[in-house]
Please model this.
Amino acid sequence: MFEGYEELNTQDVERMQEVIRTLLAQTFLPERKYDKKYGRMMLDRMYDFSDRHLEFLTEYFAVAGIKLCQDTELGIIYLEGADGTGEKLPKLATIYLLLLKLIYDEKMAAVSSSVNVITTFGELNGKAGEFRLIKGPSSMTEIKRAFAILKKYQMVEFLDVFDEQLENTRIMIYPCINLVLMREDVNGLLGSFSDEVKDNEVDGQGNLEWSSEETLSENDMTDEESDLEPEEMNVDEEGETEDGTDESGI
Model:
């Protein structure tokens, strides 16, 4: 038995179990998250609990060969080195992830006193057009599924109801995105996606519109794209509806 575990009361034991399950499912715990009820950033209770019991959690995950890390500057507790291949990201989710990282870096390089960045779906769409990454509109089901995965891993949070008024929908980008992608990786991957679209246009191979159930296979991904998905990103659909959305529509 780990030192200190027996000293936990019943409520803390339940919280500890919840934190462990959550970290294994989503990898990242940001210190602050947007609370729609209060309309502002709030301290995340699981991060706070993990911070207070960091030594115990570090020892617990070490038994399984998993490193528990804390980035105090970004305000993130996360797992590193989890063994598992995980489910590959749908292509649209991969493109969104790349563009969101690009937007995050641009806004942080400007003037920002926060580690969180706010963008809009319209701005994201504009970036996709700028890099010619998507040819033709994507279905709402496909878009929602892509964002459901990014939200699960604490990359984004929607500040508005995600409906037909997509262009004005505000999206908060959490700093967890910095731990998934480096700027150099983004530039290279964006170039490879842009080249793919150009090749499809020349060859007359339709467009990049994928069905909501389609994901990248090994043959569909370059080595760089395969590296995009951290090995600890094990997609777990627990808590989502059959179409990958939660109660807010994502």
Residues 201-244 have pLDDT under 50 and may be disordered.
